């Protein structure tokens, strides 16, 4: 209920204006977002890669102007150049949302594909990779189709699948072929019961079934969850299917369970931190608040006087 409310607020211009213009919210936002500019993002990635890997995400989504989509594509090209120039390409990749590259525009699939190709080509030249984030349900088919087309030229493009969707077991089977990089997450949006599991137990059950398909397949599973039970389950599956530590990775979000991230990395497992940066942090931030009531309480306390 609370989560649904916050996800609704994440699309509300009035709430956006209020939260964005409040200086009081800045310290809370800073817990989840690495900074506004490229220098701050690179500094955050440098700190992470001492023991982990990183995926940098230039915040932004649901672009409704062609010029903004063009600018985002150029910014991503600059970002991967910078990753290469800083000597970070072996440990830092990028994550991108197709709606930031134009997917939501009229004729958006072609625009987003063209932009994603530019980003992937620049990433390949810099020696790094791209993972395409998954967004709300109406974009799932277009996103997966775009990933398939990108993979014809850039086989290492990563895709994201959301365990809360009823279709995802089938998508896992489809996409778990040789060297396919798949990030499995629970799913961050508010989807209806006709397409998504709604209870925690159902989502966790689906996550387990999907992860088994990926771990027993021929691809490279990227286990994106902070849930300790699922992290343990991933280790058990990796052992059961004879995967060594270079054949899958754990992924977590910047600012969430940082001690668990370093503890896992210290055991020799590959851990990648998703690091968002940029000015368009509002919807991302609201999704993080909705995932944990304690985050909302912390956020609201920042407005209390004294
Ligand atoms: P939960 O059951 O939500 O949380 C398990 C535990 O983790 C909680 O008990 C708590 O201790 C901790 N935790 C979880 N969230 C928070 C939080 N916000 N603040 C503090 N503690 C928290 N979703 C998409 O829909 N599309 C994507 O492309 C996508 N990419 C992602 C990439 C990465 C690397 C990760 C880690 C997640 C991504 N997600 C994406 C978000 C994901 O779908 C979930 O919304 C989010 O990860 C919370 O789910 P959980 O698996 O951690 O499990």
TrEMBL record:
Domain Proline dehydrogenase residue range list: 54-298
Cofactor: FAD
Pfam families xref list: Pro_dh (PF01619)
Molecular-function GO term, any one: proline dehydrogenase activity
Protein keywords: FAD, Flavoprotein, Nucleotide-binding, Oxidoreductase, Proline metabolism
Cofactor mode of binding and number, as noted: Binds 1 FAD per subunit.
Positions of FAD binding: 134, 162, 186-188, 225-226
Pathway(s) the chain acts in: Amino-acid degradation; L-proline degradation into L-glutamate; L-glutamate from L-proline: step 1/2
EC number(s) per entry: 1.5.5.2
GO BP terms: L-proline catabolic process to L-glutamate
Binding residue positions for substrate: 97, 287-288
Catalytic reaction(s) noted: L-proline + a quinone = (S)-1-pyrroline-5-carboxylate + a quinol + H(+)
Keyword Repeat: no
PANTHER family in the cross-refs: PROLINE DEHYDROGENASE 1, MITOCHONDRIAL (PTHR13914:SF0), PROLINE OXIDASE (PTHR13914)
Protein name per its UniProtKB record: proline dehydrogenase
Originating organism: Speluncibacter jeojiensis
Taxonomic classification: Bacteria, Bacillati, Actinomycetota, Actinomycetes, Mycobacteriales
